[in-house]
Design goal:
Largest sheet: 8 strands, antiparallel
Radius of gyration: 16 Å
Shape: globular
Order of helices and strands: EHEEHHEEEEE
Oligomer: single chain
CATH class: Alpha Beta
Number of domains: 1
Number of helices: 3
CATH superfamily: Hotdog Thioesterase
Distance between the termini: 42 Å
Number of strands: 8
Helix content: 10-25%
């Protein structure tokens, strides 16, 4: 039986495309990713490389990793708006269109659909290289009190 202790995940290269910088996140996000971001033509892109730990028993990118990645769509939008408040997910939907595979570069360009005083509404198309593999939309609550959350950093 294969256990997490018998599989080495640390030696698989990420090799993100030019301009991407790793997002400084905690242990859960680093394991699920690591995730990267860049600004291209005034738009922010997020991405990660599919590794063995992301693959399901069928040999494809596991939907749970896609959903976790989709939940990051608020990050570049908050940076662009200058919002640093904690923003928990109220709702997220993911429509799976196609499978990703080992070695694919998975990326998205999140868009702000609407901002209210307390909510951000976002959407994105998740791509595997040049193939659309998922469609997502989400709602995030803007918490306007001090939660101890740290200000996110921009890619360098």
């Amino acid at each position: 039986m294969t256990t997490p202790e018998t599989i080495s995940f640390t030696n698989e290269p990420d090799t993100p495309p030019a301009g991407y910088a790793q997002i400084p996140y905690g242990e859960p996000e680093t394991f699920a990713g690591p995730y990267y971001e860049r600004e291209a033509d005034g738009r922010f892109q997020l991405g990660f490389r599919v590794k063995r730990r992301h693959i399901n028993h069928g040999g494809f990118l596991h939907g749970g990793f896609i959903a976790t990645f989709c939940d990051l769509q608020v990050r570049p939008i908050k940076l662009a708006l200058g919002l640093f408040e904690f923003s928990p997910t109220v709702s997220i939907a993911v429509d799976y269109l196609e499978s990703g595979k080992l070695g694919d570069w998975i990326w998205m360009e999140p868009e702000l659909v609407k901002q209210t005083g307390k909510m951000l509404f976002t959407q994105a198309i998740v791509m595997a290289e040049d193939r659309a593999i998922a469609r997502t939309n989400a709602i995030y609550r803007i918490m306007r009190h001090d939660t101890g959350a740290k200000e996110p950093t921009r890619p360098t």
